[in-house]
Q: What sequence folds into this?
């Protein structure tokens, strides 16, 4: 007992919390341990009764969760979930390898304050007056390391840097081109987010003499990330009456064809539930992920097709959707062929990181419960097995490959979906595809068209042969006596 008490005292001396062992995989087991031995039975029963109330009323701003524990032990955790250059918020603040980024943040923050004509002391007081709301946005242990003054300084510095980076003016003075790409990736990591309420506190009083208002800058920045220039389909955003939780949440809603409103007002006490967008498939409801995302195996659907090439052999052809919303997936069957419409997207070096962090966000309590990004990835994984599948999607202008080889793109989607659960949002689309796929006559006709009419020359030859036969018949008819 004395040794146990001594170990507890040592842990309390270091930040007021037990010592945590953080390995290279990012595991933090002590942070999630719940000791049920040292509390009385009555207190334990009472804690269960009030658990739901404390969860619902813990913050006026939405929480910024950490990556779920089931993902923290993955081999590439540090590569896809941890910042490389710039830390935002308390989760990765103070790490030695991110030290140079602190200098860059100060320079950019000074530029933002000068351009926005704001007094830093007034901004600091404004942020500090909301510091309790900030604390409840994050996990308790990381924020307990900082008193109110240090946490307010962190929020103000990180917020000014973030807004200046979004504005984009003069950033080449502080960052090289390759660093700009890494910072852009860092800004969309789940554990590298700032409450959007903090950003509003900072930019609401901004008065820029040149350039767009801050709200317009944010919209343009997110739109550029969600749908870069060069695609034939522009991203079409429909405003919903809800404020974003953070920058990653704003990007996610934009990819789903919506845009959460950026209002100039103080944060509200309650957040409205996210409005389910419309799509050509049934929408997912609340609840956990339901089954393994394996090819040909989804609960309630006997799925025998495995990839794009098999669908093409059955007369099912892919076409780009009219919008770039990830929800815009539909299938329509005709007599002996069908059209599967998919939204066009760009695949680059940061696609995997962004999708992984959005999926991790959807796994967290309090996040949007439609699992739209998870469902999209699982659906696309059903269609992509090999490089030939990527080639077909690329030829139809659905996948715009800026990554490299088609094999790399196929591997990315297979790795992202590995171990995911498919919520089944697109089960109706899959059922219609399967119904068309099961008609053998469609496969025979499609195979015949593919074998004999694969080029314009064969089509022309067939038309010429039919025309010759027709003319020969007419000539024979008129050559008969009496005609």
A:
């Amino acid at each position: 007992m004395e040794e146990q008490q001594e170990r507890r005292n040592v842990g309390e001396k270091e930040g007021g919390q037990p010592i945590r062992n953080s390995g290279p995989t990012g595991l933090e087991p002590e942070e999630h341990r719940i000791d049920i031995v040292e509390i009385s039975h009555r207190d334990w029963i009472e804690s269960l009764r009030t658990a739901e109330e404390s969860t619902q009323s813990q913050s006026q701003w939405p929480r910024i969760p950490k990556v779920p524990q089931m993902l923290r032990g993955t081999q590439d955790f540090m590569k896809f979930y941890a910042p490389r250059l710039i830390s935002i918020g308390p989760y990765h603040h103070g790490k030695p390898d991110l030290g140079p980024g602190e200098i860059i943040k100060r320079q950019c923050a000074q530029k933002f304050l000068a351009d926005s004509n704001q007094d830093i002391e007034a901004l600091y007081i404004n942020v500090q007056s909301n510091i309790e709301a900030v604390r409840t946005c994050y996990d308790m242990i990381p924020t307990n390391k900082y008193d109110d003054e240090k946490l307010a300084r962190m929020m103000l510095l990180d917020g000014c840097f973030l807004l200046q980076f979004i504005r984009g003016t003069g950033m080449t003075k502080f960052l090289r081109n390759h660093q700009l790409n890494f910072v852009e990736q860092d800004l969309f990591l789940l554990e590298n987010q700032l409450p959007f309420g903090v950003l509003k506190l900072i930019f609401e009083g901004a008065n820029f003499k040149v350039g767009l208002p801050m709200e317009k800058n944010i919209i343009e920045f997110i739109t550029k990330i969600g749908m870069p220039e060069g695609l034939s389909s522009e991203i079409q955003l429909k405003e919903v009456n809800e404020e974003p939780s953070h920058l990653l949440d704003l990007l996610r809603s934009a990819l789903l064809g919506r845009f959460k409103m950026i209002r100039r007002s103080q944060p509200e006490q309650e957040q409205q539930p996210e409005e389910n967008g419309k799509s050509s498939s049934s929408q997912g409801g609340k609840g956990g992920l339901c089954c393994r995302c394996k090819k040909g195996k989804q609960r309630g659907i006997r799925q025998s097709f495995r990839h794009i090439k098999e669908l093409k052999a059955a007369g099912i052809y892919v076409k780009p959707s009219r919008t770039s919303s990830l929800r815009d997936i539909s299938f329509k069957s005709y007599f002996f062929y069908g059209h599967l419409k998919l939204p066009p997207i760009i695949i680059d070096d940061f696609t995997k990181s962004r999708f992984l962090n959005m999926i991790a966000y959807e796994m967290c309590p309090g996040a949007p419960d439609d699992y739209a990004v998870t469902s999209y990835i699982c659906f696309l994984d059903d269609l992509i097995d090999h490089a030939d599948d990527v080639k077909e999607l690329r030829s139809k202008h659905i996948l715009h490959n800026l990554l490299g080889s088609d094999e790399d793109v196929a591997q990315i989607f297979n790795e992202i979906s590995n171990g995911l659960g498919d919520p089944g949002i697109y089960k109706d689309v899959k059922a219609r595809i399967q119904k068309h796929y099961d008609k053998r006559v469609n496969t025979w006709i499609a195979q015949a068209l593919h074998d004999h009419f694969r080029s314009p020359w064969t089509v022309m030859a067939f038309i010429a042969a039919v025309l010759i036969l027709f003319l020969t018949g007419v000539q024979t008819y008129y050559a008969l006596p009496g005609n």
User: Anything to note?
Assistant: Confidence is low (pLDDT under 50) at residues 1-34, 265-299.
